[in-house]
Amino acid sequence: MRYAYLGPAGTFTEAALLGVEGAREAERVPVSSVPVALAAVRSGDVDAAMVPIENSVEGGVTATLDAIATGSELRIVREALVPISFVLVAPAGTALADVRAVSTHSHAWAQVRGWMDQHLPGADYVPASSTAAAALALLPGRDVGFDAAVCSPVVVEQHPELEVLAENIGDNQGAVTRFVLVARPDAPLPPRTGADRTTLVIPLWEDRAGALMEILEQFATRGVNLSRIESRPTGNVLGEYFFSVDVDGHVQDARVADALVGLRRVCPSTRFLGSYQRADRKVATVARHHSDGAFREAQAWVAGLQGGGPR
Ligand SMILES: O=C(O)C(=O)C[C@]1(C(=O)O)C=C[C@@H](O)C=C1
Q1: 129 lines ligand 1 (CB under 6 A)
Q2: ∠59-60-65 over CA atoms, to 5°?
Q3: Which of 34, 55, 58 to mutate to test the pocket of ligand 1 (most atoms within 8 A of CB)?
Q4: Cα–Cα distances in Å, from 285 out to 203, 250, 255?
Q5: 57 near 107, Cβ under 8 Å?
Q6: CB-based contacts of 243: which residues, under 8 Å, 6+ apart?
Q7: Rounded distance from Cα 111 to ligand 1 centre (Å)
């Protein structure tokens, strides 16, 4: 197996990938961005890519939501949760008072803003393609326009030349990022476990009153809970949006399958991005009348009526 991930080594994305069994022994290809990682899957250069999809502070990772919603189809086959803890690093000998500019990934910056305002209020922010890319740019011999970087503590274990100026600088202790492993659409459907998630892309089919309500109704009437819904611009015309949605359940659950049938009628260009086990193993609560058995019994009853059999 060959896996792409947002590199270089030491990113949170790499930590998510290393949690996949077999990934330590597999070939891991660090790339410079989420779209590049997904393009490598589409071209067949790698078998799958690990990408961030949801961040506890910034919400949905728009680079991922947009790149999987458009272009040729992809499938999410697995998710991973990574606890996020940040350190501030700098070349050995740097004092906190010397820091004028700090680099990191934009999502990491969003998660340490409070700490920065308090401890380095005048510091400039220099965007980087990842947290590890920012830190490695500080290694001896490179000349960059910043003095410190925000990254994972793992980077310092791998590069003791860097010094930790401050630990645990995240504004939200307990921050978590959700990552997904994305493969091509012919990847086998992960088995149903009872603690599953399904990810969908639903273009707003018609711009009219009640269109969103009609979409949501498909889930509500089948007892399908939504765990995330975000609207994103399609990028084509101003005002044209799609919804990126996560629901509790697997496409092999009757209630989810029935909701998809309804959704496809209401919105024919709905895109299925995959059903996969939840990393937190949280089992969905399903009322009796939304269970597989209730759907089976009701469908058999209607089939009987259509066949003119006993009522
Ligand atoms: O830069 C990294 O280390 C990443 O893996 C990316 C990323 C993200 O996109 O949210 C992942 C987790 C952290 O929240 C910060 C950055």
Answers
A1: no
A2: 175
A3: 55
A4: 28, 13, 12
A5: yes
A6: 200, 201, 202, 203, 204, 212, 215, 229, 230, 231, 232
A7: 10
What ipTM was assigned to the predicted interfaces of this complex?
0.98
Q: What is the pLDDT of residues 240-282, one digit of tens each?
A: 899 999 999 999 999 999 999 999 999 999 999 999 999 999 9
- From the CB of 12, is ligand 1 less than 6 Å away? yes
In whole angstroms, what is the distance from residue 219 CA to residue 200 CA? 12
Whether 107 is in the pocket of ligand 1, judged by its Cβ within 6 Å, is yes
131 lines ligand 1 (CB under 6 A): yes
Contacts of 168 by beta carbon, 8 Å cutoff, 6+ apart: 85, 86, 87
Nearest CA to 132 out of 10, 6, 5, 14 is that of 10
Dig out the tokens for 256 from the structure: 């989810």
Residues 6+ apart with CB under 8 A from 269: 203, 205
Calculate how far, in angstroms, residue 243's C-alpha sits from the geometric centre of ligand 1. 23
- CA 121 vs CA 91, 99, 101, 115: distances in Å: 20, 10, 11, 9
Q: 222 Cβ partners below 8 Å, 6+ apart?
A: 255, 256, 258, 259, 262, 290
pLDDT single digits (tens) 69-124? 999 999 999 999 999 999 999 999 999 999 999 999 999 999 999 999 999 999 99
Domains of the chain: 1-84+172-188 (3.40.190.10), 87-167 (3.40.190.10), 189-311 (3.30.70.260)
Indicate whether residue 150 lines ligand 1 (CB < 6 A). no
Report whether 17 contacts 50 (CB < 8 A): yes
Rounded distance, CA 246 to CA 241, Å? 17
